[in-house]
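Reminder to self: tokens first, then the designed residues, so the page reads top to bottom the way the pipeline ran.
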């Protein structure tokens, strides 16, 4: 063991102390102050593109945004088509929440003023009862998405109040919620009987409702929040017992709606914050553990067609982008409260694969279903609007959420969760900055410059991913020991400006196997990135079986190749016959496809929902791709990285 410099103490952040029922609920990890992070590299560029395309460009302000506000004035969601009601009402709130998060990230004063003016305009649409929404029958509860839309509006008003401090925004949010409570609740229409999917979309108002309680202190909001939690099917019994969600719902392929359910669980986490009732947190953690075990796919999304229906059992699973965004949100909420590295690992997997694969590089449009096997399903416009679609409206929020989680603060010092290149200011109460220089995950080398405002003792905690079996860390050139995967490695010492941390992660290709009664597949991961075979670069046909040449640890020696335009990373993986199979990172698959179809479907052309591509049907001329590579039934599979699919018989 090398000798360590004086005052250099190294320890693992093992399990953070659990909270009791008494005492304040302290966050283990908190975001940096607004405007502190500036992320560069591939993810930073995508973030910048999304902010420009969807929030700050002339097109965004003059076309995309006004359409969301006009819907609140028109109120036609219950008059459109032959459904019981549409969801035009979600888009104002989604746009506003994304714009507010973008403003927090950039500090853009012009965007702040645009938000102020826009919210003021929307307040003028609030009627005497307090309703802001898109239904002509303002108290509609049967079918449709009325309360769902009200949720997004309530939430956006509260976040706008945080940003701008205008008491009118908070008062408008109260009037909106007070109006809802005149026709939904105990002795009225039960919230579980409203809208669609057993009331799950309506019940997800729980999360902004808890925020309304925190912002006002009004007991009636807390009472209503507890009422919603009690109404949620199974949460406080099955959730606490750790029963798999898949079995909670009759016909889970129809009813176990992932996006809305996940937001309800985030609401439980927030309810724990204000009640200190540990059952709410425990139920949420149990549900998250079940999702990781039984519902989350290799690319970090959590559904089959937006339902908790054992997507990991399907090599051709396809998942809604919103599920990835809200899974990421739930992981972020749990990470802040528990400091459990598991949730940061999940955030990284979702970011580099599902999120980064969801939008075109220009940030203008994306997909509504991400598939493990071609095709992705490109978003068609929703609800007869020209510029809106459910997942396109949420994906930028997912990127902004990741930016807020990259580097966080703890009482002991900065915590690095995601190794994104950039500058992260004020990781300590006294200020200072961390500068992260890296091309990770193209390579496993990360350099961090620690620049405290003054020389002082604190800890820098570094997430060691679960997959990095061999990690090296040096401080000012001195190697450290005791580094374990799937933990935070904490370096406690007296830091001075210019101190350097150098990390080297284990970027060997990892082979994961998948098999069921009839089929065998393998997938390859490199660091946090899942690889895929894509017909645009493949040197073999999509259906050809592969026999990968792995070492005794189940790892594979990947050889990087120059990536053609539209692709980020391309590798050759060795086969036992001496040949290779060419693979790319998952986020690059379908980029040409997304671009081509996004151009076709993008504004100003009008598209109806029913002409979008269908699952499993590859449109003519579009590239083919697959994550799970077929293996000959007679070939042996490497064993170290076994993926155990969930047991479909398990209830
Ligand atoms: Zn969606």
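Designed residues (651 positions):
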């Amino acid at each position: 063991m090398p000798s360590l410099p004086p005052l250099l103490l190294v320890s693992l952040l093992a399990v953070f102390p659990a909270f009791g029922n008494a005492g304040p609920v302290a966050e283990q990890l908190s975001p940096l102050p607004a405007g502190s992070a500036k992320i560069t590299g591939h993810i930073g560029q995508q973030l910048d593109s999304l902010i420009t395309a969807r929030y700050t460009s002339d097109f965004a302000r003059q076309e995309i945004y006004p359409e969301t506000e006009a819907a609140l004035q028109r109120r036609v969601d219950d008059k459109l088509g032959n459904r019981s009601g549409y969801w035009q009402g979600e888009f104002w709130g989604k746009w506003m929440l994304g714009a507010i998060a973008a403003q927090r990230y950039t500090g853009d004063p012009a965007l702040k003023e645009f938000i102020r003016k826009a919210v003021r305009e929307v307040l003028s649409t609030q009627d005497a009862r307090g309703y802001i929404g898109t239904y002509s029958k303002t108290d509609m509860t049967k079918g449709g998405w009325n309360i769902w839309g009200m949720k997004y509006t309530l939430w956006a008003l509260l976040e706008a109040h945080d940003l701008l401090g205008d008491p009118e925004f908070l008062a408008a949010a109260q009037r909106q919620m007070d109006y809802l409570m005149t026709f939904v609740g105990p002795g009225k229409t039960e919230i579980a009987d409203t809208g669609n999917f057993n009331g799950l979309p309506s019940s997800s108002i729980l999360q902004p409702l808890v925020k309304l309680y925190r912002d006002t202190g009004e007991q009636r909001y807390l009472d209503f929040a507890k009422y919603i939690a009690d109404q949620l099917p199974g949460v406080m019994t099955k959730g606490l017992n750790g029963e798999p969600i898949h079995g909670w719902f009759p016909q889970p392929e129809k009813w176990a709606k992932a996006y809305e359910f996940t937001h309800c669980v985030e609401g439980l986490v927030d309810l724990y914050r204000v009640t200190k009732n540990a059952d709410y947190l425990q139920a949420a953690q149990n549900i998250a553990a079940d999702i990781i075990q039984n519902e989350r796919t290799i690319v970090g999304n959590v559904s089959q067609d937006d339902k908790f229906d054992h997507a990991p059992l399907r090599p051709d699973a396809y998942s809604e982008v919103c599920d990835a965004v809200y899974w990421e949100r739930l992981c972020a909420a749990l990470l802040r409260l528990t400091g459990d590295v598991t949730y940061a690992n999940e955030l990284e997997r979702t970011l580099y694969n599902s999120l980064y694969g969801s939008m075109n590089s220009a940030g203008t449009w994306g997909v509504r279903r991400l598939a493990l096997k071609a095709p992705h399903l490109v978003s068609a416009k929703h609800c007869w609007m020209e510029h809106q679609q459910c997942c396109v409206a949420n994906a930028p929020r997912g990127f902004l959420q990741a930016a807020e989680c990259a580097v966080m603060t703890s009482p002991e010092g900065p915590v690095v969760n995601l190794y994104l290149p950039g500058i992260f200011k004020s990781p300590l109460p006294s200020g200072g900055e961390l500068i992260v220089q890296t091309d990770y995950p193209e390579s496993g080398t990360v350099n961090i410059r620690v620049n405290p405002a003054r020389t002082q003792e604190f800890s820098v905690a570094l997430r060691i991913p679960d997959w990095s079996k061999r990690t090296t860390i040096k401080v000012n050139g001195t190697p450290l020991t005791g580094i374990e995967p799937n933990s935070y490695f904490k370096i406690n010492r007296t830091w001075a400006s210019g101190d350097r941390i150098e990390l080297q992660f284990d970027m060997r290709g990892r082979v994961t196997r998948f098999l069921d009664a009839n089929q065998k597949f393998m997938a390859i991961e490199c660091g946090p990135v899942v690889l895929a075979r894509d017909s645009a670069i493949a040197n073999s046909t999509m259906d050809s079986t592969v026999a990968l040449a792995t070492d005794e640890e189940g790892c594979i020696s990947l050889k990087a190749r120059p990536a053609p335009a539209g692709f980020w990373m391309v590798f050759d993986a060795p086969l036992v016959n001496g040949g290779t199979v060419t693979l790319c990172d998952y986020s690059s698959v379908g980029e040409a496809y997304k671009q081509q179809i996004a151009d076709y479907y993008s504004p100003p052309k009008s598209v109806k929902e029913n002409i979008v591509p269908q699952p499993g049907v590859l449109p003519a001329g579009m590239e083919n791709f697959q994550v799970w590579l077929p293996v000959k039934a007679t070939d042996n599979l490497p064993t170290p990285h076994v993926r155990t699919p969930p047991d479909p018989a398990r209830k």
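The CA atoms of residues 1 and 481 lie 7 Å apart.
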